[in-house]
User: What shape does this take?
Amino acid sequence: MTIALILGLLLVLLFVGLPIFAALGLTSVLVLLRFEGSYASVADTVFSTLDNPLLATIPMFAFMAHVMIKAKVVDDLFDMSNVLVGHIKGGVGFATILACTIFATISGSSVATALTIGSTAIPQMRRLGYRSRDSYGIIAAGGTLGILIPPSGPMILYSIVSDASIGALFLAGLVPGLIMALIFAVFSWVQATAHGGTTDQAWVGFGKALAAARKSIWALIMPPLVLGGIYLGVFTAGEAAAIGAVYALAVALLAYRNLSFRDLVDCASQTMRASVMLFMIIAGAGLFGHAITLIRLPMEIMEAVVALNLSQTGFLLVVMAVVFLLGMVLESIAIILITTPIVLPVLTSLHIDPVWYGVMLMINLELALITPPVGMNLFVIKAVTEAPLGEIMRGALPYVVLLLMGLFLMWAFPSLSLWLPTLAGFGT
Assistant: This one.
């Protein structure tokens, strides 16, 4: 009964609009006062939660993304993708997914991917005869790749809470991310071809295609630089974030030469605001983890699982169903920080690889981005296009089905997630 009251209070505070960090912190303090009679442990808990070198990767990856966006590197990415495959009938949707995939390796954010690529690609698709709802669905789904393809902000958070290797998680998300991108791209092509209303673009020739590829080469170098260094063991994830940030700055200042001092200050300001808010949420999550451990919530859940004699499959099915339902009403960050401390002991007892689980969690959180009523990518597209929300939801619905299929695929074949980290020697 106590556990239900605590979780109910947290959900009520979130639903009424209280910021995530405040809801987590307030609930935790009330639990500490009730069961410890004091909140003296708050300071120590917050300090120990934030005393993690991995947190430094968050502002560095965020700064890298802001600089690349401000320098308009993304425009060249979409142009290159469009030149390479846009001349194929229905190929603009394919090009859009390709641009989203590449940009996801730069931004680490699904919302930023949907917003940045969508503002360029949606008018282009509509001009070439794509149905409005189809173009909305392509951007909604393509944007979700920012959660799965590294460097993913939610993956970093999950790594901090679960203590799973961020390098292993980054590599684990790469193959599933590319598979989902391919599934999205093929479906967008089939959908456009079946509709029959799209028009072809003229092939610009190999010379212009090569020129477009050369123009976007600086953006294309970044993923192998950041991820390749981790894969080869040249540097850690933290060092990769620092190298990525320096590289983005060098590209903007030396190659594109379009980043003013005011732009640089704006990038730093946006990075600071986003990072500080995220650190506050992480601190609140640390308090919440301490509070639920105090009332033995993880242990009671583990005992319940043992009593029910759930297998790996049964437990994962239940957890994924709960995460899917939570995704309809909560943001991805809240879901990670609330559920991970609760399920982690059970993952250990059932010998479920936390990296494998993390990939499935990320795909489930992709679903949260395109399912109402709190699907962030749906609202991003509405802000870009001012289209009716119902029309955007109808466009995204087929991709909900595709993501569910992808989730099943990653469950059925764990090696799709774990092959690359194992090959790199992370020992998952």
Observations:
- The CA atoms of residues 134 and 191 lie 8 Å apart.
- The radius of gyration is 22 Å.
- Residues 20-423 form one domain.
